[in-house]
Design a protein that fits this description.
Blueprint: H1 5-12, H2 23-31, H3 44-51, E1 66-67, H4 82-92, H5 95-98, H6 101-104, E2 129-130, H7 134-152
Parallel strand pairs: 1-2
């Protein structure tokens, strides 16, 4: 692409409709036709295709990649029921649980179910997934927000 983030934001500034407090507000405006694009999950089109039978949504492929959101389940060290916690975590990785994650949480499962992903879901998977450690994210967050604010305030 060649452009640095401030230049990218400046180039986009005239096309940004609004910045909302959160995803729900932004996605609601998008669904109401207030904006042509919205920053969302790459699995959002799968939701519309499978749950609403609406094939009219697509995820744009970012050549740099898409940030990977990871949701976790864990056993805390102070648990009074470590065996139960272990059994629950093992259950979470079973095919029964992993097979419903795509169409209930609209995310990729930790383990691909034996039957595979639902039809129409696999086509949404980004070619490049990005992941930052908490330390990397913390170090980049404020400079990135500062560059964004400065570029859009001109």
């Amino acid at each position: 692409m060649g452009m640095r983030p401030p230049a990218i934001w400046q180039a986009l500034a005239d096309n940004i409709v609004t910045v909302t407090p959160g995803w729900s507000e932004a996605y609601g405006l998008f669904l109401e036709g207030e904006a042509d694009l919205v920053l969302s999950y790459s699995t959002s089109p799968a939701y519309h295709l499978i749950a609403e039978e609406d094939p009219g949504f697509v995820a744009l492929e970012m050549e740099e990649g898409h940030y990977l959101q990871v949701e976790v389940a864990a056993k805390v060290a102070s648990t009074d029921v470590p065996d139960l916690a272990d059994a629950f975590l093992a259950f979470m990785l079973t095919d029964a649980v992993q097979s419903v994650i795509p169409t209930t949480n609209w995310m990729y499962p930790a383990v691909t179910p034996a039957a595979g992903l639902p039809e129409g879901f696999e086509s949404m998977r980004p070619a490049v997934s990005l992941f930052l450690t908490p330390e990397e994210a913390a170090a980049l967050r404020e400079p990135a927000i500062g560059a964004w604010r400065e570029a859009l305030s001109r």
